[in-house]
Amino acid sequence: GEDVEQSLFLSVREGDSSVINCTYTDSSSTYLYWYKQEPGAGLQLLTYIFSNMDMKQDQRLTVLLNKKDKHLSLRIADTQTGDSAIYFCAEIPTSGTYKYIFGTGTRLKVLA
Amino acid sequence: DTGVSQNPRHKITKRGQNVTFRCDPISEHNRLYWYRQTLGQGPEFLTYFQNEAQLEKSRLLSDRFSAERPKGSFSTLEIQRTEQGDSAMYLCASSLRTGNDGYTFGSGTRLTVV
After folding, report:
1. Are B25 and B1 in contact (CB under 8 A)?
2. Which residues of chain B have pLDDT under 70?
3. What is the pLDDT of residues A39-59, one digit of tens each?
4. CA within 13 Å, CB half, B106
5. How close, in Å, is residue A72 to chain B by CA atoms?
6. How far apart are CA A13 and CA B42, in angstroms?
7. Interface test with B, best of A98, A101, A104 (most B CBs within 10 A)
């Protein structure tokens, strides 16, 4: 079945790096995404990676993709208090649909 | 363009009442999506439109739910005979036709059924 798994919580100190992990199920997924959700708000697209890439870097964000293990990670360098939020990974399974399958989200808490 | 706009932001209704939410997508986006998010969960797909055509509906979308996008611009989501289990955040998003470079989400409508 379709299921995207994430750990529920992560706590880091300000200035440290954060690594948020995700395991997805559809090995044929062509695009994988990371979204950020702040309290009471909608989801904000952070970055995405095409499945033929292993890594993508965008300023403080680094996405790593391991297709063999169906594992996706998001590394945030120099984590700031403003990074405290819930982070969702999502895939578009290649079943002829354009809907996302979202993970349950990882709540990142940044300690000052 | 100010992004995807959803109204109202919050809605409290009594069980059994009907409610309607509105979504105004980014004007050049021809795909529009509705998702539902309950507390502590990721968003779950409900339905999506390409222009005015509703192309896919989730089995989560019971007969009490209906969505429209009459002119391929704004969309409405109506829930009839609301139940307490309908309490959730309803999120709208839009994208260009391919959608591969991600959606733009609205801030959502939080529904509370009492």
Report:
1. no
2. 1, 98-99
3. 888 899 999 998 889 999 999
4. 29
5. 17
6. 25
7. A98
